[in-house]
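Quick board copy: two proteins, each given as sequence then tokens.
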Amino acid sequence: MIRLVLSDIRLQASMWWWTLLCATVGAACSGGSVMAMFSAVSAARAAGDARMVSASIALGGNVVFFTVLAAVGVVASAVGLTLTTQRREHALWVILGIPRHRVRRILRTELVVLGVVAGLLAAPLALLVASVTLAQWKGAGFDLHGATAGFRFWYVGVSVLSGMVPCLLGGWGVTRRAAKTPEMRAFRDLSDPPARPGVARCVLALCLLAGVVGMWIPGLGFELKGGLAQRTGFTFAGNLFLVCLLLLMGPWVLTPLMKLWTALVPSRGVAWHLAVQSCRARATRSVTTVLPFALSLSFVGLFMVMGNVMPGGSTGLDNILVVLGWVFAVSWVGGLAVIVLVGRERARDSAVVTVAGARPGVVTRSMVYEGVIYAGTAILFSAVFIAVAGLTTAIGARTAAVRVLAGLPWATLGALAAGTLATTCLALVLQAARVSLAVAVRALRS
């Protein structure tokens, strides 16, 4: 079985390479955040500074939480998309006589191999991440008593776990479906299979919904002893649970949102029509591409809303990056990796359009419009979420929602939105240039 696992990874190396990159960056950022917090807490305890111990745990805990959350979500989505894209190859295994339970075991072994390799590659990078994180904290005014990110053997275990867990979470359900899907359906279906919420996703969604309600009730409806700070803290937690819930249910949130706003665009161009239909038919690919950018923009917006309401809070991007810097790194790398790793599938779709008679310029423009659709969906989702976060936070702070929203640094948010649009479009422009050089018949045969 190991021989088959290694052979399949080698044959699909062009796809697994980008998934490995995404998993390595996620493991490095997650593991490095844990190492930075441990180093800061250890140095503060050695110096006998109880206040700095508490501050390091509070700041480090937030950095670790948001970074790990982003890494798990982005890497798991990328892994799931990679396996879904290979569903025809897996169906061919069944046709050739490999038992379904063995197919499932082979694919899960591949995920373990991927996670271990990503974790080992991330170990030295995690030390760099930890050093940069400590430097950020020092620049923010924290006295870390000379804390440094020195090597400890258990750091390797943290890196390996940071690589394995997202890979297994993202591929567990996909491997189960791959072993159950009738092989002829896998060959016949041209569009992505409809998303179905599994038991684990439903249970987690209910827990997150309970968290939203449980945090919003005291934050919005009661006068608490802690006053404004405690109420806004509850609303912040409720909004955090909300964004996690919405992105967890991405196929049932992002896909309808994408269909809604693209249907309102009054364009009759062939390129735009091709882009819209491609995004709708390849719904899994679309959701996985949108999710990293929607996640990072929503987190930034949530922190800016809190900074605008809390006394002494800051909405500056430099201060927010102290907590969310590695979230940006994981999200942007994950988004670009997803765009690239489905290049073969996109090239096949473009070849079909070319053979049908479309000119090369139409195919190129349609791919650029895909980037616009991805970025537009992420920006629209984050804008709606920021509005909800601003409204609920204003109610908790007993102030006007208009004042909260008007006080946000919209120029900074606009620059981040423009950066998202530029990133997705540039990545697809480069891919369109490569696809235009490919021979259509060869792309269809691959």
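And the next:
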Amino acid sequence: MSDSVPRDDGKGGEDPTADFLAEVRAEETPWRTERPPGEEAPDRAGRPERFGRAKAAGRAAAQAAPYLQAAALATWIVSGAVGDSGDSGSGDLGSSGDA
């Protein structure tokens, strides 16, 4: 199928998909229409904060994340350095040296 050849299929230029979509398309909702230039925004509905503690805990964890990552990296580096220095002369303790 080539893109340069329009598909008309003898329907006189009608597009059944566009017609269907025009029929089922919802009307514009009043809260999504543009506000006139002089009109102020409506007040937000007063809703209690449902997840106040969870949001605060998530915010605190997000702020602490870089510090926790740095501390984990430093611990990993130090534990690797300490582990390598203790194993320098021990070798295999279970062997007698004769193979």
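Board note added afterward: The radius of gyration is 35 Å.
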